[in-house]
Specification:
Elements lengths: L1 E3 L13 E3 L5 E3 L5 E3 L9 E7 L2 E7 L2 E3 L7 E11 L20 E11 L2 E5 L3 E5 L2 E4 L2 E3 L5 E5 L12 E5 L8 E4 L6 E6 L11 E5 H10 L12 E5 L22 E2 L6
């Protein structure tokens, strides 16, 4: 078990868990000045463990960050952290601030600043996010229907690039979601972030994985096109644009998205 964000304190010999501090993710700014790669990170973020480049990682996605320039106290951020679990000091990972390559934390960018989105690992092939609150010009667009995908390994079938973000057509029903994908299954399950606490919520939806694959089969489309397929955005190393499609231009790409077989509340 890994406790994200906790600093290394005395564990009393307990080896059933490991602290994963954010303070070890440091980058050099100017001269001998340094700053942390994570800032007020953790609230409403998502994390999952997976295999990437033949190593075991913990990936963290989005959450909230404080913006002094905004009237809102906290807004979604685009932090995309990857912490290597299967390598440590004995492998040269010393977390030395003067040696960036030695850090176990690597930090890049999401497709869009996001909080409260669902995320799945599709058979160690793709990382896919669903819905959530998206930031546009430092203002929150709540309960979006956005779907973003990034390959975790070489994709010969569709020609998608590893470490590149792609945008798929929007969900029929936007929302703040948790997502579950049983490995090897044929359906993705989405359920609302707050469940019954919000009026009209508390529903479980299912989305056949083939609807995602069908869009990949359709192929790459241009920025001006709105029907089917997927759009290429930017690599993990680059920060994305702050614009998202208007809701009235969003396509009901997944009409099969509906209540799960057991639609009880």
């Amino acid at each position: 078990m890994y406790i994200l964000g906790a600093e290394n304190e005395e564990k009393g010999g307990d080896d059933t868990f490991e602290y994963v501090p954010y303070s070890t993710a440091i980058k050099q700014t100017q001269g001998s000045s340094y700053t942390q790669k994570f800032s007020e990170f953790g609230l409403r973020a998502k994390a999952l463990s997976l295999e990437f480049e033949s190593e075991n990682y913990i990936f963290t996605l989005g959450g909230q960050t404080h913006y002094n320039e905004s009237g809102d106290n906290y807004l979604p951020n685009d932090t995309f952290g990857r912490y290597i679990v299967s390598k440590g000091p004995e492998d040269g990972y010393t977390d030395n601030k003067d040696q960036q390559d030695s850090q176990r934390w690597k930090v890049g960018y999401l497709a869009q600043a996001t909080q409260r989105c669902g995320v799945i690992n599709y058979n160690d092939k793709y990382l896919i996010t669903f819905g959530g609150d998206i930031m546009k010009f430092k203002k929150v667009i709540p309960q979006s229907g956005m779907i973003y995908l990034t390959p975790l390994k070489e994709d010969k079938k569709y020609g998608l690039e590893v470490k590149q973000w792609y945008e798929l057509p929007q969900l029929k029903r936007g929302g703040q979601y948790h997502a579950i994908y049983p490995k090897g299954g044929d359906k993705i399950y989405l359920f609302n972030y707050y469940g019954k606490r919000e009026k009209g919520k508390g529903k479980l939806y299912e989305l056949p994985i083939k609807t995602i694959l069908n869009e990949l089969d359709t192929g790459l489309i241009t920025e001006a096109e709105t029907e089917g397929g997927y759009k290429s955005l930017h690599p993990w190393t680059d920060q994305g644009k702050t614009t998202i499609p208007d809701e009235d231009k969003g396509k009901d790409a997944f009409p099969t998205m509906g209540p799960a077989d057991d639609d009880s509340d």
